[in-house]
Design goal:
heterodimer, A: 113 residues, 6-stranded mixed beta sheet, 4-stranded antiparallel beta sheet, globular, B: mainly beta, 7-stranded mixed beta sheet, 11 strands, 0% helix
């Protein structure tokens, strides 16, 4: 079945560091890929999404490029801030347009001032 | 203002008691969801509802049931709660079965 793998469970950085969170997926066809962010005490919220190969999604300085060749959708940010501390989830829409999203296990980002 | 509202935010119950978690949305979204979130397990889909009285099991439906009698309202019911149902529960809704809008969650403790 479809699946999403996030390599990093936790990431600790200092402000202005470069961020990469790896996301690889397994699915047939062209699933829509998502990045969600969850701040403490809140529900996840959409950061951005991409639906086609080579499409770049971006928001708030974060970006990721849909790469069907490597089945990846890695999240990057050039310079993180303390306010970026949160849990980040990569997700994909399941096959057959069932409305079901498949989430990775999440990556906790902690940014020190 | 697009919003998914969950009530209550915090709940403590004893094992064997019945639990009702409620969720409302003001966006007229057709599809609604219930997820649970546990450390190390991420977000797991319990049930999905495609519209009024059109519900489908997710990945972990055992021990739960749902009710959707109005498009804007979706309830999660735990009949005779168990300690392993202690978790944070999130409701979500979507218009295009694509982008999900989540509520703030209900933290349930079953003692």
């Amino acid at each position: 079945g479809d699946s999403v793998t996030q390599t990093e469970g936790q990431v600790a950085l200092s402000e202005e560091d470069f961020l990469t969170i790896h996301c690889n997926y397994s699915a047939s066809g062209y699933p829509t890929l998502f990045w969600y962010v969850q701040y403490p005490g809140e529900g996840p919220q959409l950061l951005f999404r991409a639906s086609r190969d080579k499409e770049k999604g971006s928001s708030r300085g974060f970006e990721a490029t849909y790469d069907k060749g490597t089945t990846s959708f890695h999240l990057r940010k050039a310079s993180v801030q303390e306010s970026d501390s949160a849990v980040y989830y990569c997700a994909l829409s399941g096959a057959g347009n069932t409305g079901k999203l498949i989430f990775g296990l999440g990556t906790t980002l902690q940014v020190q001032p | 203002d697009m919003k998914v509202t969950q009530m209550p935010r915090y709940l403590i119950k004893r094992m064997g008691e019945n639990v009702l978690l409620e969720c409302g949305q003001d966006m007229s979204h057709e599809t609604m969801y219930w997820y649970r979130q546990d450390p190390g397990l991420g977000l797991q889909l319990i049930y999905i509802s495609y519209d009024v009285d059109s519900n489908s099991e997710g990945d972990i439906p055992k021990g739960y049931r749902v009710s959707r009698k109005k498009r804007e309202h979706f309830s999660l019911i735990l009949d005779s709660a168990k300690t392993n149902q202690t978790s944070v529960y999130f409701c979500a809704s979507s218009f295009s079965q694509n982008t999900l809008y989540f509520g703030a969650g209900t933290r349930l403790s079953v003692l």
